[in-house]
Design a protein that fits this description.
The complex is a heterodimer of chains A (510) and B (621).
Chain A: H1 6-18, H2 27-47, E1 53-56, E2 67-70, H3 72-95, H4 102-121, H5 125-143, H6 149-180, H7 185-195, H8 199-216, H9 225-231, H10 234-261, H11 265-287, H12 292-321, H13 327-365, H14 376-379, H15 381-395, H16 401-415, H17 419-444, H18 461-475, H19 478-481, H20 483-499, H21 502-509
Antiparallel strand pairs in A: 1-2
Chain B: H1 6-20, H2 27-50, E1 55-63, E2 66-73, H3 76-95, H4 109-128, H5 132-151, H6 157-186, E3 196-197, H7 201-218, H8 226-233, H9 236-262, E4 263-264, H10 268-289, H11 295-315, H12 319-350, H13 366-379, H14 386-404, H15 408-411, H16 413-439, H17 455-473, H18 475-487, H19 501-524, H20 554-557, H21 562-570, H22 576-594, H23 599-617
Parallel strand pairs in B: 3-4
Antiparallel strand pairs in B: 1-2
The chains are: A mainly alpha (510), B mainly alpha (621).
Chain lengths: 510, 621
Amino acid sequence: MSIPLPVFIAIPLVTAFVLPIFGKKGKDAATVLANLATISLLVLAVASIGQSGVYEIGKWSIPLGINLVLDGLSSLLLLAISVVASAAMLFSARYMEQYTAKAKYLSLFLLMVAGMNGVVLSGDIFNLFVFLEIASLASYALVGFGCEHEELEASFKYMVLGSIGSIFILFAVALVYGNTGSLNMAYIGKAIRDSGLNAGLSFAMALFVVGFGLKAALMPFHAWLPDAHPSAPAPISAMLSGILIKTLGIYALARVVFNVFGVSVSIGWLLVVLGLLSMVAGAFLAIGQGDFKRLLAYSSISQIGYVVLGIGLGGLILARAGNNISTEQLGWASLAILGGLFHLVNHAVYKSLLFLTSGSVQMSTGTRQLKQMGGLAEKLPFTRATCTLASASIVGIPPFSGFWSKLILVVAAVQAGFYWIAAIIVFVSLCTLIMYLKVQRYVFLGELPENLQQIKENRGSMLVAMVFLACLCALMGLLVLVPCLKQSILEPAVKVLTDGLEYSAIVMKM
Amino acid sequence: MDKTLLVPVFLPLIVGFVLLFLPNKMKSVSRALTLIISVITFILGIKIFTGGISSFAWPILQLDNVNLELLLNVTPLGKFVLLFAMGFGLLIALYSLKSQATNDERRAPNIYYGAILITIGGSAGILLSNHLLFLLIFWEIVTTSLYLLITTGGRNSNFAATKSFAMIGASDAAFMLGVFMVWALSGTFVISDISLTTTSALTIIAFLLLMVAAITKAGAMPLHTWLPTSGEYAPASVMALLPAAIDKLLGIYLLVIIVREIFILESVALSIVLAIIGTATIIIAAMIAIVQHNIKKLLAYSAISQVGYMVLGIATMTPVGFAGAVFHMLNNAIYKCCLFLGAGAVEEQTGTAEMDELGGLGKKMPLTFVAFLIAALSVSGIPPFNGFVSKWMVYQGVIQMGAEQTSVAANLWPIWLIVAIFGSAITLAYSVKIIHSVFLSRLPSDLKDVKEVSLPMKIPCIILASLCVLFGVFYKQLLEWFIYPALNIEPGTAIFGTWESGLATILIAVGIGLGVLIWFVGKLSKMVRIVPTWTCGEVQTNEQMTVPGTHFYKTVSSMGGLKQLYAGQEKGHFDTYNQGGKIGLALTDFLRWLHSGVLPMYLTWVTLGLLVIIFIVCEIR
C-alpha cells in the first residue's frame, strides 16, 4: 500500500494550527499531541522507505497542477527529518517547561517540520520556495523564542540574512519561469536538457547557489549560524543544526543543481571549494570557542562542508566524464555522493544529540561557558555517556558512524585522484578531534566547581530522547555495513543524484 | 578459515565496550569479567603462538571496487608480540584487583576495566590484521582506550588525557594518510601483498607518514611529549600497561612491519633519519630524565630514551640490529612495566610519587625493592640482566652496519655507537638516583607505618623481575625460540659476539655473596661507630642528616649551555604540542577577529560571494 504523500505535510500543519487552542491550561495535552504527530511522521517515514511515486494535487496533471514527488533522496531526508524531530520534540516535553507559551512553541516547531517535509516532497520549484519560507519563518521565531536581548539580536541577524537568501531564490524562480515557461521541476529539467542553458538560466543558477548556500550556511554565507544556533532553545538548535540547514540548504541545492540544471564542471568545482572552505575555517573557528553551543554551531559549518564536498566531488566526476561516462567513473561518483549523503544522515543524528546534551548541561548548570563547568561526569552520567558517544561518532573513531562516512569520502577522493582533498579531510578530522576533546576536558572532566556540587541529572523525556539518539549513533554504521540497509536507504538516494537530468523522464513516467 | 582468531580480538572489545556503560556500583562484576577475559585471551595467545599459521577472512564492506575485508593472519612476528601483549594484559588485570585507582568510585572504575579490555582486544587486532585499513581501525581503538584510561587518573588528569589523545590522534591522522597513499601506490591494502621501493618522492612521504605513527605510539622524539605529561597524572598501572608495555610493542611492531614488509628502503636519507631519531631520543630523553624529581615522570622519560635503542637497531638494517631491536622492545616492556608497577606500589602505600618526600622504603617494602632494583639494573644494561643483552645486540648492529654497508649512515657508525653507549651510562645514573631516593636514603618520619602491598599487586612485579633475570641468563635459548623465528633470521648468522652468560652469572653471584659476607663481618665485629655529626657546636641529630637523591646531578642542570636548555624544556618550548597549539590558536584568533558580529560586514561577504559565484557559474571570461 502506498502512502498518500500529502499526509507528510498535512499532519504537522494541521496539528500546528490546532495546538494554540489548548492555551496555557492544556499544555500537557498539547505536548502529547505534538509528540504523537512527530512519532506518526517517523512511522510513516519508515514505511515509505523503498517507495516512490508522484501525487498530483487536486488531480490536476502536471504541468498544469502541482505535484509531490517521493524518490530515494526525498525518503532519505524524510527519515532524517522525522528522526530528529521526534527526538527533539520528546526532549522539548521536559526542557521547554522553563519557558512560557509552550503551546506556541510546539505549534511553531510543527510548522517548521511541515515546511521541511514540503521542501523535500515538492516537485514544483515555486512550492519548494513556499515551503522553504514556511520553515524559515518558523525558525526565525523559534530562534528568538527566549526573547532575551541576545536571542532577539541573533534572530534579527538570521532573519536579515535568511530573507536575502529567500529573495535570491525567489528571483531565480522567476528567471527560470521566464526562460522555460514552467515551474515544475521535471518540465524545467526537460527544457534545459533539450535546449541547454542560456545566460538568464545561468544567472538563475548562480542565485540558487547563493540562496541555498545561505540556508545551508556554507562559507562565506555562514555568518548567521554561529549566532542563531546557540541562541535558540536546545531542541531547536538540534533541529536547526541537525536537519534544517540540510533540508533547506543541501537538499534543495543538490536537487536543483543535479536534477534540474544538470551539473557542470565549474559547479562541481564550486561545490568542492565551498565545502573545503567551510570544513577548514569552521573547524578552526570551533576550536577557539569558549561557549559550548557556539562551538557546536561552528562544528556544524565544518561538518556541512563534508556533505557538500562529497556531493560536489561526485558532481565534478560526473560532469568531467560527460555523457559517455565509464562504469568506473560512475562508481567513483556514486561513492563520493554516498559518502556525502551518509555523512548528512550521520551528522543529523549526532549533532542533534550533541545539542540536546548541551541543553541538558545548560539546564543543570545554568551556563554555556565551558570554563565555568568541569567534572560533570560524576553528576550527569547519562549526559556524559551520550555526549561521549556522539563525540566519538563525529570525530570518526571506529567503529562509529562518522568514521565510515569519512572513510568513504577519503576512498572516493583517492580513487578519483584528488589526494590533496583526502589530506584535507583527514586534517579536518584531526581538528574535529581536538574540539571535542576540549568539550570533554572542560565539561565532563577536571574539577567540579563549588557552585555545581548540588546539580542533578535530568531524567524523564529528556533522557529518553538522548538515549534514543545515542543508540542510533552507535548503530548508524550498519547503514553501510549491512548490504540490505544500504541498498534500501542510501543507494536509491545516491542514484537520484547520479541520474542527473534523467530525473524529468523518471518523474514523468511515474 | 580459523574462527578462533576472532575470539581474542572481539571478545574483549565487545565486553569492554559494554563495561564502559555499566553503573559504577557494579565494579566487582567488571573486575571479575576483566580477569576472566584476560586469562582467556592469554591462553589463546599461547595457543596461537604454539599453533601453526592460520588465517581468517570476513568481507565487511564493499565500496565500489574496493573490498574492505577483515583479514586476520597469524604471522611469526605477530604471534610472538601477541603472546607477550596478552601476558601484559593479564598481569595488569591482576594488579588492578587491589589497586586504589579502581576502588575509588569517583574515578569511574568501570571505564578503567572496560578500557583495559578494549586495549587487549585492540592490540590483538593490530597484531593479527593483515589488512592495513583494519590495522588502522584497531590502532585508533587502542588510542581511544589510552585516552579513557588516562582520564581515570583523578581530577588533574584531564589535561594529560587531552594532550595524549591530541598528539597520538595527529599521528593517527598521518597513519591514515599513509595507509591511503600506500593503497594508491600499490593498489592493495593487504600487507603481505605490498612491497614498495622507496625511490619516488610519494613513496618516501608515505613511508614517513607511517613512521610518524609508529614512533609517536612508541614515544620517540620529537613526538614524545604526551608521555611525560601522562606519566605524571595517569594511574601507574595505566602507564605500565600502555605507554610502557603495549604501546612500545605496537609501535615497534609497526615500525618493523613498514621497514621490512611494506617498504624496501632504497633511500639513504631514510636510514639516517631513523638513526638520528634513535640516537637523539636516547641521549636527550636520558638527559632530561636525570633531572626529574617525580618517579613516574622520570620513568616516562626513561621509557622514551629506551625507544631510541629500538629505533637505532632498526635503522642499522642488519639482522643482528633487527633482532636486537625486537629483543630490546620485549625487554624494555618487561622491565619498564615492572618499574611502573613498583612505582605504583610506592605511590599507593605512601600517597606520593615525589622523590623529595620518599626514602628508606627498602626495609618497609622489601619485595617491591628487590623487583624494582632488578628492573632498574636491567634498564641500565648491567649484566647478567636482559637489558644488557639486547643493548649489546643493538651495538653489534651498529658496528656491523659500519663494517658491511657503504651508505652515509653506515659511515657515521662511530657517532651512533658512542652516543648509544653514553646514553646507557646516563641510564645507570638515573637508576641509581631513583633507587637511592626511594628505597635507600633515610625514611621520612611520616612514612614510619608504610606496609608492603598486597599479594595481587606483588605477583606481577615478581614475575616481571624474574623474567628480567631469566631472559638475561638464558638469552641464547630465548633468541632461538622467539626472536629469530619471528624475524626469519637464520640462527647463528646474526649475533657474532656472544658471551658466556652462565659462567659470568655464577661469578657475579659469587661476587655479590662475598660483598654480603664482608658487610656482615663488618657489622658483627662492631667496627662501625655511629656518632652525631659535628657541626661546629650546633646540635644535629642523625635523623636530620640525609643525602637526598634529588640533589644528584644538580651540577649537570646548572652547567653553562645546558642550564638554558633545561629551563626552556621545563617551560615547554620544545614541546611539539605547545608549538603546534600556538600556530593553531593564532589562525583561530585571526578568523575570530574576522567574525566581528557586525551585520553589514556579513552582508558584504554575501555580496562578494555572490559576485564570485556569478563569475564562476555564468563562466564570464
